[in-house]
């Protein structure tokens, strides 16, 4: 096909399909972006990333990229990435090669979603003095969906629903409720406030983040829910850590531990404390906190917060990533950090896992890059961080930008600063377009 000259047999089914199309890779990448927009998905695909996917060099994709690729080619992703054996797998009914969306189904879907939102708004604010089970279940389902989606979807896709859900909960709480209903609403309002605190942090606004978190803690007090209190302290520790207020981060983590005897927050809080101690250069306190986090697994029992999933629960993969990031601050712990980081990177390659999170995946790669820079492995560091530098601006949340800047600093402080100049330039280009700078 014009502009895509190749030699040899296709390496993957995707590469075969691309060769069959009268388009260059640049044109296919543009088609991908147009289709994503028509499907209501906020994602881009660079020509370079497309080439790597087609060659089989890369197989890691975000869930949203996976959805658009599957819609574009009418085939499951595992079929597209399978080694080419000369036999084209059957396409999804009605699909042959690249699918060109008409836009009509998307328009219909928007009308359906608009009608559903209006119906839900009416049901929730119809002025009934006693909330029905259906209303409470609807709000709970909304909050659970936001918690589950948060680590895996760009924030720009979630913010409208986050705002709407918080407003709905506050509206419902402004009316007199039976005690058990008020408790449920305060619990859900606390979780939503915690998610909005994380959103404010992701947009590099720690003041707004901590304001949301304080209000969320008030909700947790009104719900009298220790698991929620502990989780919100974890959010406050996280926000303070990335804002450079590391001693405050330690205090929040330690304060939250009193409320979290059994939930997964009992793991999150000490390993969060470990990151802050490491940033302060205290290796002994870091290792002790990491060990407390590991020991906490022996008594973990999921609570009402954990059951929401997503950002509301803390799994072993996140624990490994946090330990990697903590130890990567400490030159004396480089070997241990490299081991944790390699394990985290491997775990986050599974994008189908409920624990998958693009932010933590990027953080794991940056920690691995830092350990390789310290070991003098510049090529390995570049390989580790390259996938992170391919993230679309919509995914360049505050924590990811900070991780990239840490790699930049590690390069500048190493004996390989001159040789790593090109990588530093790539990082600088990446951090020039963070999520917070995108037009609303």
TrEMBL record:
Gene3D superfamilies: Tetratricopeptide repeat domain. InterPro entries: TPR-like_helical_dom_sf. This is Tetratricopeptide (TPR) repeat protein.
């Amino acid at each position: 096909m014009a502009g895509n000259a190749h030699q040899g047999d296709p390496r993957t089914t995707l590469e075969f399909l691309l060769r069959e199309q009268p388009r260059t890779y640049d044109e296919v990448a543009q088609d991908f972006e147009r289709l994503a927009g028509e499907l209501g998905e906020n994602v881009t695909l660079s020509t370079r990333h497309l080439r790597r996917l087609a060659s089989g060099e890369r197989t890691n994709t975000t869930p949203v990229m996976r959805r658009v690729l599957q819609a574009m080619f009418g085939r499951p992703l595992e079929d597209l990435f399978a080694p080419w054996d000369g036999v084209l797998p059957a396409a999804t009914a009605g699909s042959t090669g690249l699918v060109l969306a008409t836009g009509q189904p998307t328009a219909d879907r928007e009308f359906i979603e608009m009608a559903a939102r209006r119906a839900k708004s009416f049901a929730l604010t119809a002025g009934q003095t006693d909330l029905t089970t259906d209303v409470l279940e609807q709000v709970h389902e909304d909050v659970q969906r936001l918690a589950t989606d948060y680590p895996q979807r760009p924030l720009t896709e979630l913010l409208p629903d986050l705002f709407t859900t918080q407003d709905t909960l506050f509206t419902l709480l402004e009316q007199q409720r039976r005690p058990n209903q008020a408790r449920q609403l305060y619990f859900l309002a606390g979780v939503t406030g915690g998610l909005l605190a994380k959103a404010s942090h992701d947009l590099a606004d720690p003041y707004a983040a901590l304001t949301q978190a304080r209000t969320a803690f008030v909700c947790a007090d009104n719900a009298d829910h220790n698991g929620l209190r502990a989780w919100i302290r974890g959010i406050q520790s996280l926000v303070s850590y990335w804002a450079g207020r590391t001693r405050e981060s330690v205090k929040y983590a330690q304060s939250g531990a009193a409320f979290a005897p059994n939930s997964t927050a009992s793991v999150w809080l000490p390993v969060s404390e470990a990151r802050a101690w490491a940033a302060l250069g205290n290796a002994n306190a870091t290792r002790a906190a990491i060990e407390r986090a590991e020991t906490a697994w022996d008594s973990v029992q999921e609570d009402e917060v954990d059951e929401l999933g997503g950002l509301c629960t803390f799994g072993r993969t996140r624990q490994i990533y946090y330990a990697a990031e903590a130890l990567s601050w400490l030159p004396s712990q480089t070997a241990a950090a490299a081991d944790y980081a390699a394990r985290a990177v491997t775990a986050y390659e599974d994008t189908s896992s409920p624990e998958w999170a693009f932010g933590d995946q990027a953080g794991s790669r940056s920690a691995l890059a830092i350990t390789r820079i310290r070991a003098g492995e510049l090529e390995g560091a570049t390989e580790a961080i390259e996938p992170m530098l391919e993230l679309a601006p919509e995914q360049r949340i505050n924590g990811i930008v900070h991780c990239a800047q840490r790699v930049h600093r590690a390069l500048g402080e190493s004996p390989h600063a001159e040789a790593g100049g090109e990588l530093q330039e790539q990082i600088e280009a990446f951090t020039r377009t963070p999520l917070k700078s995108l037009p609303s």
